[in-house]
Predict the structure.
Amino acid sequence: MLDSKLRRFMVACLGASALATCLPSSAQTQTVKVGIVGPFSGPFAHYGTLFKAGAEAYIAAQGGQLAGKNVELIYRDTGGPNPTQTKTLVQELIVKDKVDYLGGFVFTPNAMAVAPLIQQSQTPTVIFNAATSSITDKSEFFLRTSYTLWQVTVPLAQWAAKNNIRKVVTAVADYGPGIDGEAAFKSEFVKQGGTVVETIRMPMNTTDFAPFMQRIKASGAQAVYTFLPGGPPNLGFVKAFTENGLAKAGVKFLGTAETDEFDLQKFGDAALGLTTSFHYSANHDSAANKKFAAALAAKNPQAVANYASVGAWDGMYVIHQMIAATNGQRDGLKALAAARSLQWESPRGPVRIDPKTRHIVQNVYLRKVEKINGQLLNREVSNFGPQSDYGLDK
């Protein structure tokens, strides 16, 4: 005869939607679900590939589990800048797939669109890339392990002024991060005594950059500060800069992610000497970066160590610590509280999460493209030191 307690337990199980829901927790293999949102198709599909490589390499480097929990990564393809589709995908991840965490997001409009959803559901969401400062203001459940344009641009403007560059044109993609970059460079450069002689905003779908190059050359500027999203726009701009003779005319190139490792070899020798200010270089000399590169190669020999894959790697570190703090249970507020105090040694250098802004504080480096052993690389010329997100103070 079954005792009464066991009989009641079995009756309850038979009425449940799935037997697994009635098994004691010790008999179950707990799985934490993480939804990763990004472009896995279209012209920006390399971002999705890099997110996948960085996230999966991190989990593999931890032995396949995070804080003793199995982790299921659920990928969703936005295709590109598409706020409406992204909102639908995230709603499905939260309601249907019941994810515990979200990560990814390449484009600012996509991240902005999901802020009400993550706020209402209290789903901690780690931004692996999107770089507009105001994103983390839109929900207290946003954290960011990438960078912002203010963060990497302010020290570049200071450097330009100290190096006798007095007149600059800004030429940026006409969307959130580009506008942030323009504002950051202009405000700091003017404060340092420089002059922005012209501001150019280029539509996201621009393919012919020659007219913009002619405007830059005719302006009399000593340098051009630029920001474009990685992929075809970035390739087109750098190619046009070279083909239209701006470097030969003495116009200095000042950028951020434009010499990204994913595209760098495609530029050829035209990229030599290009100057950028950024938070990561695959050439960064540290044990943590060597470990990151080795983990990427072990999981996927074709993976590229760059700002997108390191953003995903560090994003998974943050999610790892939130899983540990909550013992794998769904508790957005407790997870967020744990993340606010994090500091660690990233492949990019020492980093921490600012408890107020929930944005990463990190070193920013001045980099120049050089060729070593037949390969182009971003050599870190100097370290500007730890930088916060200046844009959130504006």
User: Anything to note?
Assistant: The domain at 150-278+364-393 is CATH 3.40.50.2300 (Rossmann fold).
